[in-house]
Amino acid sequence: MRNSGNSCISILLLGLLMGFSIACSRHASDEKIAKDIEDRIATDPDSQDSKVNVSVTEGKVKLSGKVKTPVAQKKVEEIAGAEPGATGVDDQTTIDPELASAMAAAPPPRQKPKPQPIVVPSGTVLTVITSQGLSSKTSQAGQTFLATLAQPISVEGKPILPKGATVSGKVVSAKAKGKIKGEGELSLALTSISVADHTYPIQTSVLNSTVKGKGKRTAATTGGGAAGGALIGGIAGGGKGAGIGALIGAGAGFIGGAATGNKQIEIPAESALSFTLADSLTLPPPNE
């Protein structure tokens, strides 16, 4: 009798444990079904804007909330019904026209405008300070020279080319004045400018000066307009070119720093020269 009683108790406990296990398993399965349905509703193009709540009890799916169109409502039902493990669908969702209007009226995301390149226009005057002396007697065509920008250049009120930027130039032509006949000639142009560790090619007017006769000098500019450039003189306070007069006016292009006794054209170091951009210079947008 005692053994029989113990057997009955064991069977009863086993049944309770199995029932609890099945209930837990079913509960976990209901949560998974609800989660899968919610994920599919959120990613489907027809239903992703719907505000639907999903609950599952013993496999039966209950849908509530709002959808924006009949098409979205039908799609939600199809997703719930097709979910593995779902035993039925109770759709209590409602169609809300205001939801559809709100979605349609929502403005598109505002795109940040792309920064535009900076253009230094042709005709801009670049005044530079030469780093070395140049002469119609000693310079050679094709020879390069260095200078620094004497004044900053701004575009639309914003500084673009800083004072002190390194500028490169070349001797376009150089011809020494003969003792008996022939004229001295020296022509210069700028070829590049360096900004923020980048070097950009530039094209400027060619500044040309000739000397003949008893020190008579003529000036012209090519590749640019009148007053395309002028020798301004040395840096104030005493560069080697200080004290040299400047001829600035209509038609003035490039003026020799000095005509020596043998009528050569001399441009001392630290002389200020002005060149005109023949073509515009395009620089990348800021922070690039």
**Share of helical residues:** 10-25%
CATH architecture of the largest domain: Beta Barrel
Shape: rod-shaped
Q: Could you tell me the strand content as a percent range?
A: 35-45%
CATH superfamily of the largest domain: Type IV secretion system, VirB10/TraB/TrbI
**What's the CATH topology name of the largest domain?**
Lipocalin
Tell me the radius of gyration. 43 Å
User: Major sheet, described briefly?
Assistant: 9 strands, antiparallel
Number of extended strands: 20
Unreliable spans: 20-26, 219-261
Helical run tally: 3
Main structural class: alpha+beta
Explain what the structure shows.
With 288 residues, the protein is of the alpha+beta class. The chain has two domains: 2-102, Histidine-containing Protein, Chain: A (2-Layer Sandwich), CATH 3.30.1340.30; 118-283, Type IV secretion system, VirB10/TraB/TrbI (Lipocalin). It contains three helices and 20 strands. The strands form five sheets. Strands 6, 8, 11, 12, 13, 14, 15, 16 and 19 form a nine-stranded antiparallel sheet that branches. Strands 1, 2, 3 and 4 form a four-stranded mixed sheet that branches.
